[in-house]
Structure formats: C-alpha cells, structure tokens
Queue: 3 jobs
Job 1
Amino acid sequence: MPKTSLDKSKIKFLLLEGVHQNSVDALHAAGYTNVELLPGALEGEELLRKIADVHFIGVRSRTQLTAQVLEHAHKLVAIGCFCIGTNQVDLKVAREKGIAVFNAPYSNTRSVAELVLAQAILLLRGIPEKNAAAHRGGWLKSATNAYEARGKTLGIVGYGAIGSQLSVLAEGLGMHVQFHDVVAKLPLGNAHQAASLHELLATSDIVSLHVPDLPSTKWMIKAAEIAQLKPGAIFINASRGTVVEIEPLAQAIRDKKLLGAAVDVFPTEPKSNKDEFVSPLRGLDNVILTPHIGGSTMEAQANIGVEVAAKLIRYSDNGTSTSSVNFPEVALPEHPGKHRVLHVHRNQPGVLSQINRILSDNDVNISAQYLQTNEAIGYVVIDLDAKSSDLALHKLAEVPGTLRCRVLF
Ligand SMILES: NC(=O)C1=CN([C@@H]2O[C@H](COP(=O)(O)OP(=O)(O)OC[C@H]3O[C@@H](n4cnc5c(N)ncnc54)[C@H](O)[C@@H]3O)[C@@H](O)[C@H]2O)C=CC1
Ligand SMILES: O=C(O)C(=O)COP(=O)(O)O
C-alpha cells in the first residue's frame, strides 16, 4: 500500500507537453524543487518508467494516462491536466487508486471561442483556398461563394463554457445562434435551443462542435450526420478528434457538398512537433487544419500554468481537493502546530470506525477530522499532535481498504 511522508525537496513533479514555465516557478516558490519539465508527450516504456518514479504528473491533452499506465504509478498522489479535457486520463482507475485529478476548466475557453469565430469568417469568404492559391501564384479574385457572417445561422453542438461564449461573440457579429445540448441550458442573448441535433445540422450555415470526449460523443458525427448538413455549409471541430469520422468529412469536402471546414483535433495526433501529421484532410485547400491549438495562446497557457500548479500545491501542502474532477472535495483550513494525516480509502463499511478505533486505542488526540466520500472512495483528513503522526501513518496505512495515506507536517 503506497504511503508517503516526504520532505518537499524529495517530492517529484514531472511536467510534460511544455506546460507553461510559470507552473515550474510556482512549484519552486512553494518549496518543490524537484521538478522536471519536458517539451513533448510521453508514451510507451518511457512513460511507464517515468511515472513509476514521480509523486505528481502534469499533462496536456496528448499524454494518455490509461489504466495500464496508472498500474505503474505506485507513488503518484495527483495528476494535473493543464487543459480542460480530462479524457486522456482514466479517471475511474485514478480514483480507485486514490489519485486525485485536477484540471483548468475555464482558462482557455475564450481562446477556443475566438479561434472558431475567426475560422468561420475566413471559411465564409473562402480565404483558405484563396490564400493557398496565392502562395502558388494563383489569383482567385471572385465574390462567388463568399459571404458575410452577419445574418448567418451558427449551430453550436455542446453549449457549455466554450459553446456559450462562442454564442455571445457570434451574436455580436449579427449571427443567429442555435444550439444542441443534452442538458437544458439557459440560452444567452437571442440564441435558442434547436429541437434536435438533426434539426440543428439541417438548418445551420455553420456547425461547430464543443462537446467533451465521452462514450456518448464518440463518432457522434458520421457519414449520416454529415449527409444532414445543408449543402454549402461550413463544419468546424475544435472539441475532440474522436467526435467526428474524418473520412466522410473529407469526402463531403471533395464532393463540394460543404463550402469548407476547420479541424483542430484529430483521432490520432502527433505526439510532438517533430512527428508527422497524417490525415485524409491533408491537401484539401478549403479545410483549415490546425495542430490542436484551440487553447494554445500565451494568455491561456499562462493562466492554466498558474491555476493547475496552485491546485497541485494546495493538495500537496494542505490536502485540499476542491475542484478535483474525480475525488471527494474537501476544503481544509491550515493546520498550524499540528500534523495532518490524509487517508484515502475504498468506500466500504467500517473503514472510518477502524481508523477511529486505532487512534483511540493508541491515545492519539484528534484536534480536527474531516470526511468526504463519493460512490467509490472516502477521503478522511485528521489533524493530530506531531508526536502521534508517525504511528498514525503506519497504523492507518494497514487498515483494509486503504488506497493512499500520507502525512503533512
Ligand atoms: N481544441 C482545443 O484546444 C480545446 C478543446 N477543448 C474541448 O472542448 C470541450 C468542451 O469544452 P467546454 O465547453 O469547456 O466544456 P463544458 O463541459 O463546459 O461543455 C460541454 C457541453 O457539452 C454538452 N454535451 C455533452 N454531451 C453532449 C452530447 N452528446 N450532445 C450535445 N451536447 C453534449 C454538455 O452538457 C456541456 O454543456 C472539452 O471537453 C475539450 O474536449 C477544450 C479546450 C481547448
Ligand atoms: O483544454 C483542452 O481540453 C484542450 O484540448 C487543449 O489541449 P492542449 O493543452 O492544447 O493539449
């Protein structure tokens, strides 16, 4: 059973995919000097070897922390997703192992919304094609198939943080907005909820996807859905590459059924800037292909770096798990003069009573206790006298059902 009680300088952080330097600075400032920052994603043997040795890992959307990878994460206390999506992490397995997962749910939403709006305007004017032709010496001066955004209907699939922000920006341009969501959402401005996905697809001039990667959104746009789009429509996907089947989309572009498309996310993405990008959409001039940079702005990355580093530091320093995406949320006060035992266990009957029995049998004076559970795990935090913490750590780590146990000084 993994248990930790470490000096800060021995707590290892591995940050991947070039997360912002300010996260390293924040960790250093908080006393965590053992931080490795790598520019790309990791996979295969290298990831397994590295993850086995660290207490905290930071990733973006590319590194896959699957059940198999997490099997090797013997020391891991928490995962920071320096992005919105957490689909790259097996959240359930992480939870069952007592590993808390944090993300930055809002820091890059504006960047995505701005990019999508810009792409919609460029595609309405046929700019990608005209630009590509001009680079080859061509001159496509023509108004044919070039339109203003004003008065066009934008269909947003997934009216969450990004979709609703896009809605407001698009209305500012004079567009009509409709959306489809599985949850009833308050329409902003003059936007309205479409009767169904089918109706949205069939009646929008531009369709933009903003759903998370879920089993229910996997390949939600296939040949049948693409066939429902209006002739001459524009299709944009900056959500996840698993939401849209690429081949039927490429075919609709080749058949000139669609005016254009913008795609930022792909079923398989290169793991770093050194690897080749392969896609059936390559070579189609009226498709804007971007390398998953919807959230890649200086502002967003700086905000994400600060936000996620702060969540990891708080969880490490103090045990607060607020805003974790897979963990019982506990907001904890400081614990001056006391030691704090953090105990993560399976949510099964009897664990808490055993913990309290052990503490009482050993005359441990509890100055505060906090408990939060979800359907899978329980998270109990106990503040006690410094002299008792070593004993408590070792005894509580042996309680059946214990997943992780550590002590904070
Ligand atoms: N291209 C990029 O760089 C970025 C991509 N993203 C992607 O965008 C996604 C959305 O981000 P947010 O708006 O912040 O998430 P969000 O969670 O605020 O909104 C997602 C919305 O989709 C809805 N939804 C879920 N399943 C649906 C379905 N089957 N049909 C229709 N609606 C459904 C939800 O009810 C929710 O309202 C992220 O999960 C991430 O995958 C996020 C940031 C950057
Ligand atoms: O925030 C998200 O979910 C994104 O897709 C952005 O991913 P990235 O950090 O650019 O790999």
Job 2
Amino acid sequence: MRNAYHVEHVRAAEAALMARLPEGTLMQRAAAGLAATCARLLGGVYGRRVVLLVGSGDNGGDALYAGARLARRGARVDAILLNPERAHAGGLAALRAAGGRMTGDPAVIDAADLVVDGITGIGGQGGLRPGAAELAARAAGAQALVVAVDVPSGVDASTGVVEGPAVRADVTVTFGTYKPGLLVDPGASHAGVVELVDIGLGPYLPAEPTVAALQAGDVARLLPELSAETDKYRRGVVGVVAGSDRFPGAAVLTVGGALYGAAGYVRLAAPRRVIDLVLQRWPETVCSEARPGEAGRVQAWVVGPGMGTDEVARDRLAEVLASDVPVLVDADGLTLLGKYFGGRADRSAPTVLTPHAGECARLLGAERADVEARRLEHTRQLAERTGATVLLKGSTTLVADPAGAVRVNPTGTPWLGTAGTGDVLSGLIGSLLAAGLPALDAASVGAYLHGLAGRLAADDAPIAAHDVIDHLPAAWRSVGNDHGPVRDARPCL
Ligand SMILES: NC(=O)C1=CN([C@@H]2O[C@H](COP(=O)(O)OP(=O)(O)OC[C@H]3O[C@@H](n4cnc5c(N)ncnc54)[C@H](OP(=O)(O)O)[C@@H]3O)[C@@H](O)[C@H]2O)[C@@H](O)CC1
Ligand SMILES: [K+]
C-alpha cells in the first residue's frame, strides 16, 4: 500500500521525530536524498548547470542544501531567491561555501540542465504568487528537467487542488511519506514520477492514511482465494440489470466485465432484444426476462448501464435496492437515484456508486468543474451524504467509503476515456462484490485491474471498451494471486 498523509499529520510526525534528533538532521536527510536523485537524473554532476528556485521556507532550505552538495561535486549551481531577506540562512551559507552563486537573472533557467523547485512545499497556500509563477513558467518552457522538492509548488499537498499557476515537475522527490496531492489529480499530473526519501517519519504517522493507493501485492492479497473445492456457486453469482432496446450494447459490456471478475456466473435480467444480443457474444450468461426480484438469487447486483431512465427502469432499480445483497449503481441508475430516490440508497447491505464527475455533480447539486478541481472533497462528500461507497471515475479514480477511508487508483490511462469502459468497470466490480470482497476493496481492486487492462490494451494507441475486457485476464495474471496459482490446486491426471 502506498500511504499518503494530510499535512497536519506530516507536521505532527515531523515535530515528534525532530524532538529526538539534533537540529537540522531532517533537512540534511531530505537534502541528501534530493541531491542523490538530481545527480542520477543528470547522469553525472561535474560541469552540469543547476538552477535552484528558492522560496523563503524550509522547502527552499532543502533546495539550497541539495544545491550545495551538487556544487561540491562540480556542478555550476545558481540560486534565484524569491525573497532574499528571508531565504534559509543555513542553506544559503552552505551553498555559498560550496561555490554556488545567487542571481537575480531568470535567464539562467534557459540554459540549465536541471531546475530544482524549492519555492513551496507543504507550507504552500493557493496558486503561486506572480513572481514565483513567472519562474515556474520559464522553467516549463526551458529544456531543463524540473525536479520538485517535496511537492510541486502551487499544488495543495493535502488535497491535490491546484488553484492557479503551479510547477509541472518531471520528478518530485518527497520526504517522509507520500502526500495526497501527489496521488490525486490535478496535483498528481503536476508531480511527474514521485520518489520517496525515507527520513524516519514512519513510526510517528497514524495507522490510517488519509489516502492510500493499492499496489500489485495488495491486489494479489485481496483477490478471493480459489481452491480445488471452489465451484461456480461458491464463487458467487452476480446479477446484472443493464441495457434497453435503445442501448443493448451496455449490457454486453457490463456482462463482459462481470464474466472476467471473480463471480462463478453472471445472471442478466433484461428485455428480450438485449438478451439476444448478449447471448450472441456471451453464451455463458444466464438470462431472464423477468423482473430482477424474480430473476433468481444473486450475491450482488449491478444496476444501471444503458437501462434508460423511464418508470420501468425506476421500478427495476427499486427492486434491486430492496434486495439484501451488495448493489452497484452506475450510469442511468445514478440518474434514477437522483430523480426518484432523493440521491440516497438507504440500504443496510453495502452500496457502491460509480459516478463520473458530471454524475457526481448532479447528485451533490454542485458544478462539474468544481468536482474535477476538488475530486477528493467531493468524493468524500458524496460517500458521507449517501452512506454508499463512492468511486469517482476520471483521471486518478478515487474510492471513498462512508467511514472516511479513501483509496486512489494508481493504474489507468487516458485511452480509457472512451464509451463503454465504465460499463466494463461496473460489471467487474459487481463480480468482485458477488465473490465476497467488501465494498471498498471490490471498488479499488476493480479499478486497479480495469486500469491495468486498459494500459495493456492501449499500449499507446486508441482502444475500445471490448479491448479492456479482452485484457482483463492478462491484468489478473500480472498482479498474480497471493493464494498461489489456481491451476496447481489439483494434480493433472
Ligand atoms: N515535514 C518534514 O518532515 C520535513 C520538511 N521539510 C521541508 O520543509 C517544507 C515545509 O517548510 P515550511 O513549513 O517552511 O513551508 P514551505 O513549504 O517552505 O512554504 C512556506 C513558504 O512559502 C511561501 N508561500 C506560501 N504560499 C505561497 C504561494 N502561493 N506562492 C508563493 N509563496 C508562497 C510562504 O511565504 P509567506 O506566506 O511566509 O510570505 C513561505 O515563505 C517541506 O515541504 C519540506 O520541503 C524537510 O526539510 C525536512 C522534513
Ligand atoms: K516545491
């Protein structure tokens, strides 16, 4: 698990650790890690041109001490101080002693091999002020690699919100722990590759992170265990209510995602025309024209993709919500939820909602642009308000549960932003719910596998939703299964 903590937790941990160490120790650890990354990126230090952008806080101090280390190894280091009177005194003295120079001329940026962004870190507030914004823009237009110290300046470390101009880094070297703003967009897309330098904060951070990102090993651990005794019934049945005469393809994609999840089989409740189309593609589907409540027992329902928003669809949703099993509501189901159910599910069994930003905005009565800009806040808010686990789709998919846990998905590709991929995701998560995964795990594991399948399918070229289904087995295989290879459960005869 890649854990990220709100700035208030980082500050508390830092204070507790600093109380046990000689003054300046943490900044030296940070600067050493930063300088090592810069040296590696430069592919050698001697004769390289490095420019430091230095704010008046400790973020600037880190940059100055790292610059001093590089200067001692022969780099030509120029520091631009945003506020010369308030720059970190110890860092300044170290840089001077190592042969670094202070300059007021931003033209040095144009000729630099590497720019170190030490304007603001966890102490930054709002978008960059004009002087800092000009330097950031100049660095973005130059050839140099940009390395952000702790957090790209202008990105809110705790939330990923970017309120105005901000640095766009190639690499961010962060200290002690990841920050949510490095994992959640729009901040994440400013951070580039994130490297963590251990400065010893670990034991002083709370057990529960503010935001966590699953890694392959976590997904492997969370996947359901299969054994020789596992049959289709024990693996669970996922029910799908999707598709309509107008949008039959949504059912094909949702069923496809569900078939390649962990459930033993997929039951579809839909109109005849939808069933015919689904059976052509997926003959293994168990289909029924009956209402969901009469279609047979399932361990989880997926309801919504392409089902329409008329009163027939409303009644189907009502039946599914009245069941006592986990339910995932997506697409038209979300519209119906807002229109007829006051935006609330009010169920005792787990409910998962999978809106994109527009659907999330509608359910919250907010603006879509606001949801995009403050993804963490709005995902949490919708989970609190609905009592459901909410997965907000889009760049850096987020999952929040009503108890306050938040996960951010580290996989995915912009190529996934194409019609029907959401239907595949719904089916996949529904299948994981049917196999018994708790809502937060089902949603975040589903997002992980879906994002990975999308990446494998795209390989830097456009994809369609059915390509994602085709690559789900490869995505599963690539994370492995912590419970051992299933094919070895029984000896071959
Ligand atoms: N925590 C740890 O364990 C460790 C932390 N360490 C390091 O300390 C960093 C935190 O240092 P910090 O607290 O001094 O704050 P920091 O990020 O330098 O920013 C404050 C400065 O920014 C300015 N400023 C604010 N907003 C601005 C804006 N929009 N645009 C422009 N300027 C703006 C603000 O100006 P003021 O408001 O005072 O005028 C003030 O000058 C942390 O990120 C890490 O790098 C490591 O050394 C060791 C371990
Ligand atoms: K920075």
Job 3
Amino acid sequence: MTKVVLCGALGRMGKAILRLSLEYSDFEVIAGVEHPDCIRVADLGEASGIQELKGKPLTSRLEEVISQCHVVIEFSGNPSAAVSHTKIASLSGKGIVIGTTGFSEEEVQEVKAHSQNIPILLSPNMSLGVNLLFKLVELSAKALKDKNFDVEISEIHHRFKKDAPSGTALKLASIVASAFNTTLKDSAVFGREGVHQRSTQEIGVIALRGGDVVGDHTVYFLGFGERIELTHRATSRDTFAKGAIEASRWIMGKPPGFYSMFDVLGL
Ligand SMILES: NC(=O)C1=CN([C@@H]2O[C@H](COP(=O)(O)OP(=O)(O)OC[C@H]3O[C@@H](n4cnc5c(N)ncnc54)[C@H](OP(=O)(O)O)[C@@H]3O)[C@@H](O)[C@H]2O)C=CC1
Ligand SMILES: O=C(O)C1=N[C@H](C(=O)O)C[C@H](O)C1
C-alpha cells in the first residue's frame, strides 16, 4: 500500500488524483494540503465533494500530516510552495513526486539539492505519450542537427493556466537545445513581434491560452521542401493523474536520487 499526502488537493490535478485514487486498492491519499484561503472545512471528503474521503484531514500545513504517509505528491502549481514542501519532505525522510511547473532554474537547483536525502521525481508531464514525445524529439533533433532544419514549438492550454510557456514546452525546447549542442538561454525565443528575422540557431516557443484545452504540444522541424510535426494532445487530466499515482508507487522505497518519468516508464 502506498499512502500519500496530496498538496494542491482541491485544484484541477488534485481532484483528478483524488477521484482516480478510489480505483486503486494499493494506493491511498491519506490527507490533503491546500492554500489556507481554499480551506473552508478541514475534511478532505467534504471539501472535495468525494464522500469516500470523509474523515481524512485537509490542512494548509504539510508538517501536520506528513508523518503518516510514505510519499508526498505536489501539484500546488506554486513553485515556492513546492520548494518548501520539498524541504519538509526532506526533513521527514519522505519521497516526493513533483508535477508543479513554472520553477526558476534556482528553484530547480534548490529542489535537486534535497535529492541527497530523499528520492525526488520532478516531471513537467506525467503522461506516457509526452514522455515518448520527449524521446522522439531527441531522436529527430539529433538526426536533423546541421541539416538546415529550424525548430519551433507551440503549446495550447486552458484559460486558467498560470505559467507560460508550459513546463512541457520548456522541456521539449531544452531537449532540442542539448541535441543541437546549445542551451535554452542561448537559443530560445519566446514569441516574436516587430522586425525579427529568425536566426538559424533559434528555437521558437509560443504559448496559446483559451477554453478548456487540457494540453497540446507540437514540435515543428521546418526544412526546405519538407517539414515534420510531432504532436501530442492530452484529452483528459486522468492521463497525468495516472502517471502521478504510478510515479508515487514507483518511488516508494527508492534510494535518494533525482528521478524522472523515464525511470518510472522504463523509457
Ligand atoms: N506534471 C504534470 O503531468 C502536470 C503538471 N501540471 C502542473 O500542475 C500544477 C497544478 O495545476 P492545476 O491543478 O491545473 O492548478 P490549480 O490551480 O487548479 O490547482 C493548484 C491548487 O493548489 C493550491 N495551492 C496554491 N498554493 C498552495 C500551497 N502553498 N499549498 C497547498 N496548495 C496550494 C491552489 O490554491 P489557489 O487556487 O488558492 O492558489 C489550487 O487549489 C501547475 O503547475 C501545472 O502546470 C498540470 C497538469 C499535469
Ligand atoms: O497546467 C496544465 O494544465 C498543464 N501543465 C503542464 C505543463 O506546464 O507542461 C502539463 C500539461 O500540459 C498540463
């Protein structure tokens, strides 16, 4: 049995994980952590509207509930809260699975430092399809390096998403950058306007927002006389929720280290 505390429990991803957790006999959310402004009642079942979760605590303080769990799942969508939840997990010796995106490079390094003490899995996208896309993009970028192909990345998400571009788009761009022996800092161009002629080493990244789009990502390899478009479209948040549940079952009992969904999925 894997017992988890879920941070961001009443958010879109939190609720998807709560609902899906009921289908597992060896996985249990034992408590929820939420932003203090979201807590009207301290009962996870009542607050989420899921009867089966009645009697389980909902708190704004991870410290109050962490001792009873094996693993923390982090979907608060708030990078500084995610860093502080990682510190608390590290002090308690619990593994943590982080799905939150929007971290600065310094925040990623801060999270990573705790992987000396505990197992940490950080992934901007927990779907099988996107993780396969990461591999396909790496293969394509390596094959097309120095072959006069331009790379552009587009993503579309629902109107409520706070960070842009998505963590997944940034990861796709960094995969292309490292295949091209460059860095995101030196090559990424986020949106364009005015007079701007593309340079050959640019990796363009553009974010669209609207409606209820769960998450679409396309990587374009644009050549002369041909182009390749690699697209993933998520049509349900359950895809990510299932990945997060599988990741937390996988990480339980693993030695300290910094892991990704490639480790979980065997990719
Ligand atoms: N890795 C993956 O596969 C995926 C990652 N994501 C990422 O997950 C994150 C969450 O997405 P989503 O569920 O749509 O976002 P939501 O805004 O719907 O959910 C986040 C929840 O966490 C709460 N929260 C904010 N601060 C804290 C805190 N300090 N402690 C506990 N809870 C807090 C929010 O409260 P309040 O509203 O009051 O701020 C909200 O209820 C985003 O960063 C998103 O990009 C999303 C899908 C898949
Ligand atoms: O905020 C979302 O919804 C999503 N965020 C993740 C990201 O930023 O990459 C993953 C997914 O596309 C949904």
